[in-house]
Amino acid sequence: MPLPFPTNPSLLTLPVYQPGRPIQEVARELGLSPDGILKMASNENTLGPSPLAVKAMRKALGATHLYPDGNAFYLKAKLAAKLGLTPGHLIFGNGSNEILELIGHTLLWEKDAEVVASQYCFAVYPIVAALFGVRLVLVPAKNYAHDLDAMLAAITPETRVVFVANPNNPTGTAASAEAISRFVAAVPERVLIALDEAYIEFLDDAQDLLPELLEGRRPNLILMRTFSKIYGLAGLRVGYGMGHPDFIAELEKTRQPFNVNALAQAAALAALDDHRHVERTRRLTVSGRAFFKRAFRRLGLESIESHANFVLVRVGDGQRVFQELQKLGIIIRPMASYQLPEFVRISIGRAAENKRCLDALQKILGR
């Protein structure tokens, strides 16, 4: 039965984000025990949440009858001090995805506006463009990575935002700090550079554009990061943006009140001090990437050099491999929705988890 009222016509063609399948869902569907299922699909931290964050959440439970601090005062102050910024440079979101939507509300109000992004970009960028009914310009990738020169050339008078993820999801590719700095300097001031740094903590040679923000040289730059990956707080949805205070003030007008809940704020505040958890995660990620790289080379499988906490590998029929691995209790991510149907993405796990996944993959591929 059709709805008795009209809906936004943009929704007719709006792409839908497909997350990694939850453990419980796969268990119900295949009749498996949830305890035996290994999820390596969503780039989550296999070490779990920061222990300091868990302790802080337990302490905060008794006050969950109260609304959270809508301005995240203490979290904002502590993070600003850690980054060498002022609280006015920061905005928090229900995950960094919400920051992307706030950018849309703020800048994508003209129907002739354009958004520039790269082929194989994070799926939410095209969704934001479609949601606000603006034109998406996808620039062909170069060796599965952002072609920054081509993206720069694609900017027109109608361009309002250019999205760049470094490292990129789902490919794991990364541009050098020097290349990112050149790109940022070359983008016209009238175009917002939305630099997604969700995986920046896994980079060896990370770009540092914070001085550009502190000194006010780049009012058209916003950096976005998250507590989901390195800190292991994906289930709490805490992300943040860093930009010129005047632009942050505009974004704040579009933000829902209480968008970051009290437990999430308490956990993120404590996680900032959990240096041991961060370093353990880095070490595990580096060793896991090396394990898969060696194994894929031995098996004759093409993989993309990754700078994040996952690997992208060509397996032939990615959807088939995904389905067969599920039957063996392993959830990975097929890449057909990213126009990479021959690839799957595998999140880095602990050593035993990586080996279990690789052994199952070998069995399915007959190698």
Brief overview:
The chain is of the alpha/beta class. The chain is built from 13 helices and 13 strands. The chain folds into two domains: 9-48 and 275-365, Aspartate Aminotransferase, domain 1 (Alpha-Beta Complex), CATH 3.90.1150; 52-271, Aspartate Aminotransferase, domain 2.
Protein model, in words:
Helix 2 packs antiparallel against helix 10 (262-271), helix 4 (96-107) crosses helix 9 (245-254) and helix 11 packs parallel to helix 13. It is built from 13 helices and 13 strands. The strands form three sheets. It has a seven-stranded mixed sheet. Strands 9-10-13-12 form a four-stranded antiparallel sheet, with helices on one face. Strands 1-11 form a two-stranded parallel ribbon. The protein has 367 residues and is α/β, with parallel strands linked by helices. Strand 9 and strand 10 form a beta hairpin.
